[in-house]
Amino acid sequence: DQIIAPGAKSFDLAINQVSISEDRRASLDFSSAYYDTAQAVVTLTGSPAAGASSLAELAPLRIGAMVGTTSATVAEETIQPTAAVQLFNDNDQVKQALTAGLVDAIVVDLPTALYITAAELEGGVLVGQLPAGADPDQFGLVLDKGSPLTSAVSAAVDSLRADGTLATLETTWLTDVAGAPVLK
Q1: pLDDT at residue 8, rounded to an integer
Q2: pLDDT per 10-residue tile (average), the chain, 184 residues
Q3: What pLDDT shows up at residue 1?
Q4: pLDDT confidence of residue 4
Q5: Contact predicate 81/59, CB 8 Å
Q6: Are 30 and 139 in contact (CB under 8 A)?
Q7: What is the per-residue pLDDT for 7?
Q8: Cα(32)–Cα(165) distance, integer angstroms
Q9: How far apart are CA 110 and CA 126, in angstroms?
Q10: Are the C-beta atoms of residues 81 and 75 closer than 8 Å to each other?
Q11: CA-based Rg of the chain, rounded to a whole angstrom?
């Protein structure tokens, strides 16, 4: 939360899975995107969402997400749940709501979904990815609004993309998402 809060920063740049959005651009600078991802649906074994294979099957369920995130926006726009997405202050509260049965499923970015289903949620189930379409969620380095470093940082990210370094890092260190079907 402190990384994306408006105002002067105590750092030159931050890399912390921060999604680039127009709302955030109003008070922050972002580098070029260094990673494109989708949003994903997570639930627990035995939940009504565990067997869902389509957006229509998720729509009548209680969905949770973190307030002010692209996860919340994409959940609302893509799943179009019959009840509003329940919003929580942080992803820890989102996970707690799931384990407490306050929501049937949660929406987080795919790297977070892979991590929490593997390491944090006992009985965690990755239901699938939400369609990213032509506008995937993009992570960028965060800088102060109007930072003199923004163009140089973006040039460095662009160079890493052009020479294949970002693709190599993604292939080497990020989990294959073949087990996360795209929900339609």
Answers
A1: 82
A2: 82 91 92 94 97 97 95 95 97 97 96 93 96 86 96 98 94 70 92
A3: 67
A4: 85
A5: yes
A6: no
A7: 82
A8: 15
A9: 9
A10: yes
A11: 17
Characterize 28-64 residue by residue with b for buried, 16 or more Cβ atoms within 10 angstroms of its Cβ, and e for exposed: bbbbbbbbebbbbbbbbeebebeebeebeebeebbbb
pTM over 0.90: no
Task: Provide the residue type at 54 as one letter.
Answer: S
Closest listed residue to residue 112, CA positions, set 84, 134, 137: 137
Task: Name the CA dihedral angle for 180, 157, 28, 76, rounded to a multiple of 10 degrees.
Answer: -20
Q: Which pLDDT score, from 0 to 100, does residue 177 have?
A: 60
Tokens of 148: 């003199």
DSSP character string of 88-134: ESSHHHHHHHHHTTS-SEEEEEHHHHHHIIIIISTTEEEEEEPP-TT
Handedness of CA 176, 109, 74, 122 (dihedral sign): positive
